[in-house]
Amino acid sequence: MSMEKVYLKDYEKPVYELSTIDLEFNLDDTKTLVKSKMKVKRLGSENQALVLDADEVELKAIFLEGEELHESEYELTSNSLTLHNLPKSFTLEIHNYINPEANTALDGLYKSSGIFCTQNEPEGFRRITYFLDRPDVMAVYTTKIIADKKKYPILLSNGNLFEKGDLSDGKHYAIWKDPFPKPSYLYALVAGDLGVVNDSFKTMSDKDIELNIYCDKGNESKCSFAMESLKNSMKWDEERFGREYDLDIYNIVAVDSFNMGAMENKGLNIFNSHYVLADSDTATDTNFMGIESVIGHEYFHNWTGNRITCRDWFQLTLKEGLTVFRDQEFSSDLNSRAVQRISDVKALRERQFVEDASPTSHPIKPESYIQINNFYTATIYEKGAEVIRMIHTLLGEENFRAAMDLYFETFDGQAVRTEDFIWAMQEKSPFNLEQFKLWYSQSGTPELDISSVYDKKSKTFKVTIKQCFLSPVNTEQKPYFFPFKIALLDNKAQELNLILENNSSQILLDKNILIISKEEETFVFKDVDATPLMSFNQNFSAPVKVHTSYSLDEYAFLMANDKDEFNRFEASQTLASMVLHKIIDAVESDLPMSLSPIFVSAFDKVLKDMDLDLSLKADMLTLPSVSMLMQDRKVLDVEAIYIAKNFVKRELVRELGADIKGQYISLINTKEYSLDSKEMSKRKLKNTLLTYLGALKDSGVVKAQYDNSNNMTDRLTALSVLANSRENAKIDALTDFYERYKDNTLVMNKYLAVIASSELKETPANVLKLLDDEIFDIKVPNLVRSLIGSFARNALHFHAVNGKGYKFVADKVIELDKLNPQIASGLSGVFKDYSRLNDNARNLMKKELEKILSTKDLSKNVYEIVSKILV
Ligand code: PHE
Ligand code: ZN
């Protein structure tokens, strides 16, 4: 396999058009026969060959205009089929075999616990049949599926059902037609003995849509939340974006073996069952919210992704960034906006900021790739969504909606570029977006230095904002254009009117938004009576890091008083980080640890604030995660971070334990479980407090919560707190949990993650044992992520000084690479802190990375990631 890079600058239009394709599948576990009949038109000159993509397919026969071709009339390699001297237009029929059972990569057509299903984004269709497998080749698909009727009573593909019937030998067939031209990556097929839940939706123009969710039999009752979410999504896209569904039927299928979260195939979404199945006994509140957002995400793709798709894979953020923005807005409109924003920004920081500070950093629109599968990243998705959000902020809701309408009108049915999207935005924008485009081409998280001076005599407050450029891979950076939302607070926490000295286009006055465009600029505010405190980047208006010289007291003031709820949370995290980093420094230089009383009192204030939204309160009382803290260390000393964090927890409990416990008890609820947002917030706060109570000597309350809980949210929190304790209660709870749920693989994922994430020293041994447990199967991605992935993200054990953590994960990367390269390369990303390790750790990791690179027949996927890390 070639490790060559593909470049955006090399893009060329397809030289052939494939306008219709009729597919027929004779489904068989190991030898499925695929027949494809295509109408082909040559667009270029006569001497241009037709080169079809292929991967792991076995050619049986080719017919040109009905005439079978002889071997000498085409060129066949393992990844292509080339035909020369073709007429201007013709039909091409190809017969080939594929082996779904051997397809452990879960890419193309494969079997997942008895169900045939497909995954074709980005380049899986070439593993089904010979095709121009690129998103700018759009065709109308018809599918005939032939299969054993008893084993596979349900036969599905894209579009609407056209015909079905029985055949001889106990077989039956179904024909599906999708009237919308689409790229091959949106093609899907499913066959199995599935349970189904039905419902319907009336669209805004009064069309009745049939809705079906298919799952393993016996799980039907766990689909109701997903179905509600689907109907909510359909309604929301009509109300907020004026977008209506366009087929008669919308099918969703849940499967257990799936590389990603879900896939937006036209009219036939295929989902990881993790994002469909849920009830109060087996799913947490977070799981429910995840289902709502992923169901929404895939549904919203119907317009942003399917009706308007990507010209090439460098444009991936065109559909992903935009669709994540849409699903975030959906969740914000249905639930609490501030809480949603906090959780989205947390995810951005934990995953995307880390990626953007690492050797795999890339712009949301990359210039090159070796394996496109590696680019389904937090950057393309989450940073991509932040870029759309900034456009939304700059335009305002009304203009943004108008620009979206224009985008849909202009490009419906086409495969386009991010430039086309920006064009539509520009048409309705009060600002020139030329400089804004740098967000698409530059990588790295921008950093800002903010300084200010108050001048009593002139009553002016001068704020200077400087953009610093620290991208790890891109040194020649130009300043960005972005909205920066601020407020100036007086000492009573009243917001001042912002009056700029030279009023210019620098500010959207009605919205307190500064427009930043220069490397360094100064804003002078007039009529300021006394030194104010600036609350900055409110609601995270731009995805940047900000450096200030604020004191602990100033952050404590913002934490208690900011009108922007998101920024109260931000201040709580900044304050906690400042305090924690000081303690980590102390641990690293063997000095005594001490916790700042300013922090304790700020924490206490939040704890006792009875007006705060409970969910916001829970977020504010949560300490920054280890991985957040790791980001700000120059040289990593992981153990010191754990020591510091545990110290802070113990100190807080020592000082405020009685209040924490009192409030915890007041939140215990014996009522029936409900997904009402008030109840969810209560549980969230209660469980946040429980994680502190875990630091008490006696873990009685924790075990009591485990025993008495009537839902998975409470039970799982108690279990994970216990999993870090040394008491017998831990053993009892873990055994109980295993026995209770061992037949439910989604719950066993949680069990594996809890054990693999424990700080206790027996964790590596426990993980090894679980690899051989009957609940584990290395071929199922969810299980790999839960056990091996959680262990690899357990920094304490992954970075063990004896190097065993690195060796374990490297060995698993090599083992997985043979089965499923996409999952292997995802796992190999955990080595990305390489360059920040101390000498000893770096040498140990280097050995393992080199071992991976020298593995025979290493996939492009893993090669691309590991070779970037090792340079
Ligand atoms: N396009 C899918 C989504 O974001 C993600 C995906 C990519 C799924 C590749 C499978 C394979 O909704
Ligand atoms: Zn998506």
Give the strand tally.
33
Integer-rounded radius of gyration: 28 Å
Which ligands, by name, code or SMILES, are bound? phenylalanine, zinc ion
Into which percent range does the helicity of residues fall?
40-55%
> Between the first and last Cα atoms, what is the distance in angstroms?
21 Å
**Ranges with pLDDT <50 over ≥5 residues?**
none
Percentage beta strand: 15-25%
Structural class: alpha+beta
Spatial order of strands in the largest sheet:
6-5-9-3-2-12-15-14
- Most strands sheet: 8 strands, mixed
Arithmetic mean pLDDT: 96
The best one-word shape is globular
Brief account:
Helices cover 40% and strands 21% of the residues.
Could you describe the 3D structure shown?
The chain is of the alpha+beta class and 871 residues long. The protein has 25 helices and 33 strands. The strands form nine sheets. It has an eight-stranded mixed β-sheet with strand order 6-5-9-3-2-12-15-14, with no helix packed on it. A hairpin with a 4-residue loop joins strand 29 (507-508) and strand 30 (513-516). Helix 9 packs across helix 13 (638-667). The longest helix is centred in the middle third of the chain and has 34 residues, at 378-411. The chain is globular. The structure holds phenylalanine and zinc ion. Residues 297, 301, 320, 323 line the site of zinc ion.
